[in-house]
Amino acid sequence: MSSRKTLVTLLSSIVLVSPFLTTTTQAQVNPTYCTWITPNDLRSTNGAPLRSVDQIIQQDRANVHKFGNPDRDQVDPIFTSYEKRLALAEAVRRSDISPGVRNAILNGNATVCVFFYGNTVDIVQ
After folding, report:
1. Domain ranges within the chain, ordered by starting residue
2. Which of 38, 53, 73, 98 has the fewest Cβ atoms surrounding its Cβ within 10 A?
3. Does position 18 have pLDDT exceeding 80, yes or no?
4. pLDDT grade, residue 10 (50/70/90)?
5. How many Å apart are CA 108 and CA 35, to the nearest integer?
6. CA-to-CA separations, 23 to 27, 55, 85, 107, 117, in angstroms, rounded
7. Mean pLDDT in residue range 53-65
8. Rounded CA separation 114/84 (Å)
9. DSSP string computed for 16-43
10. What is the arithmetic mean of pLDDT over 48-57?
11. Residue 32: its pLDDT value, please?
């Protein structure tokens, strides 16, 4: 009985502490990368013009991970799949991007740094 009580106590402690461990871990893995937005990033894989910041940021990461990084951008360890890049684009859509940064990205030829927080991003120039 004593070992069973010890096991229950241990499991209860893990359950109580685990939300804090998850929060700490998530904070530590939020990727940050800097990138140069070029004409390569302003067009889709099919050559169609991209007209929104989320599409351009998603295409930039596709160019890095799928198409050989033609602009020699900083490589991140997270956005390696289409699904992860789609999550990045969704986070960009939910975020408040300053008008100056938004215009710089839409016009291309801008260096920006992206801070990914899971549901939102900060993008700074």
Report:
1. 1-30, 31-124
2. 98
3. no
4. very low
5. 11
6. 6, 29, 22, 36, 11
7. 98
8. 15
9. HHHHHHHHHHHHHH--EEEEEE-GGGGB
10. 98
11. 85
